[in-house]
């Protein structure tokens, strides 16, 4: 699924453990967006909405000010 949703196959990251690290970060981000029940929209649309709207990103990832 990550290869389709976030284009993991097209990634050119290949230095030491960075490919595994970024794969882990991508999977974590996808899981956070999957658990977001704020809006009942598809996963690709949630990612696109979060890219265009930082307020939605904060809501989807349950971020707060430090």
Shape: elongated
| Element-level helix/strand string | HHHH
Strand fraction equals: under 5%
Largest sheet: none
**CA distance, first residue to last residue:** 33 Å
Q: Fraction of residues in helices?
A: 55-70%
Given the helix and strand composition, which structural class is it?
mainly alpha
Task: Report the count of strand segments.
Answer: 0
How many structural domains in the coordinates?
Answer: 1
Rg (CA only)? 13 Å
Spans of at least 5 consecutive residues whose pLDDT stays below 50 are: none
In DSSP terms, counting alpha (H) and pi (I) runs of 4 or more, how many helices? 4
Q: What's the mean pLDDT score? A: 75
Describe the overall structure.
The chain is an all-alpha fold and 66 residues long. It has one domain (2-60). The protein is 59% helix and 0% strand. The protein contains 4 helices and no strands. It has helices at 2-5, 18-35, 43-52, 54-60. Helix 3 (43-52) packs across helix 4 (54-60). The model has no long low-confidence stretch (mean pLDDT 75).
What key phrases describe this protein's structure?
66 residues, mainly alpha, elongated
